[in-house]
Specification:
By secondary structure, the chain is an all-alpha fold. The chain is 63% helix and 0% strand. The two termini are 20 Å apart.
């Protein structure tokens, strides 16, 4: 750990609700979980936070003519944080999901996250050979993306089941990122020296 203190901007956590509000104000058509999934899918395919490219990708994904400066800034910051977490050997990565008390809402955001991840991975055009484990994980994420979570009820059994699915999604995304980026980087740990925005 570096002894230096991060700036207030880099230390600020981007919350689900903050991002949701920004997207709504901008007129975007998708939610924060789907956006975070999209960002992580792009990262897993080998893309890195780059202002001009991501401005275009995010505008198309959000169905906006232009991404407002604040939303672009936070999305790029989220991308940089996600890249660090995905590459972290401590497996600290977490999908950005709703913290609602309603299990159905949390489940639905998990499905949306998977949908976004698959879209981002497709847009990212991963050029390597997918390992069987990554290929299988992508199929599983596609199945989870199609689930209807609106029937989930607030009870301990379904809470446990959702947690298990969420944990599977988290590890699947980590696995895809590591396998795809290690292969691209000659078998070493994922590259972290690609261009980033400051």
């Amino acid at each position: 750990m570096s002894p230096s203190t991060p700036s207030a901007a880099s230390a600020r956590e981007i919350s689900f609700d903050d991002l949701a509000n920004q997207i709504v104000v901008a007129g975007g058509k998708i939610g924060p979980s789907e956006l975070h999934g999209f960002i992580c899918g792009l990262l897993a395919a080998g893309a890195r936070p780059d202002k001009s490219r991501w401005q275009k990708e995010l505008a198309e994904f959000l169905d906006l003519d232009a991404v407002p400066a604040d939303l672009l800034r936070d999305a790029l910051q989220l991308a940089e944080r996600s890249q660090q977490d995905l590459a972290d050997n401590n497996f600290s990565f977490q999908p950005l999901l709703s913290s609602s008390d309603e299990l159905a809402e949390r489940g639905q955001t998990l499905c949306h996250w998977c949908e976004g991840f698959l879209h981002g991975f497709g847009i990212g055009k991963y050029a390597g050979e997918l390992l069987p484990t990554s290929s299988e994980a992508l199929k599983d994420l596609a199945e989870i993306a199609q689930l209807n979570a609106s029937d989930l009820e607030n009870n301990p059994e379904q809470e446990r089941e959702l947690f298990e699915v969420q944990e599977y999604v988290r590890m699947a995304a980590l696995n895809i990122f590591v396998e795809c980026n290690s292969a691209a980087d000659g078998g070493e740990t994922p590259a972290t020296d690609a261009p980033t925005l400051h």
